[in-house]
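Think of the structure tokens as a kind of shorthand, similar to the way a musician reads notation: each symbol stands for something richer, in this case the local conformation of the backbone. In the example below we present two proteins back to back. Begin with the first one, reading the sequence and then the tokens, and try to describe in your own words what changes along the chain.
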Amino acid sequence: MSMALGKVLISYDVDSKHVDVKNAMKAIGYMETWKRAGSIQSYILPNTTLWHNNKSSDTAIAELQSVCRDLAVKLEKSVAVLATDFVGIK
């Protein structure tokens, strides 16, 4: 269990209501885009991957579980990790 706070990246698979899950997570502060320091280019994460600027990985999983429970969605699998550097392909 990790209670360390930082930039957390969470990826998940659900059995339905993908857009509803993503929107509920975004409503509590998770984001699907980021910009590298010094860059004007925005990057978009894969469809069921989000990040938050200041959470623990345990909190991210707990919040996703709560969202899925509230929406009556089966959370099939998920991983949350602290991330210090984001690199991506637009």
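Once you have a description of the first chain, move to the second and do the same.
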Amino acid sequence: MSFGLLLNSVCDVEERTLSHSVCCGEQEESWSALYESLPCRLQNLTAEEKLGGNMQKRKATHKLYMEHRIINPELHRIVISGQTYNIVGFEDMGGASLYAALILEKVTT
């Protein structure tokens, strides 16, 4: 069985863009789709996983498994079924750069 068969959902990766507002000269943030409908699997982080990690991982809520992509936690975020997640960590699954696990923090609105 391929790991890809366990990817039972889809997600979008959005990329942040900063631009200067004409009216007030401040930076405005906008998000656009970088990758859409990527196969993935979202899983809640366990208490043990949170305690074993650094400070950022301790506030994380989920782990997302997906095919390996170039992901930058400073520039990208994940959207699944309308819910947004910030990326706080990245793990290469197996070292072959085929699959990755992103450590996510659920954004509350």
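Compare your description with these statements about the second chain. The chain has two helices and six strands.
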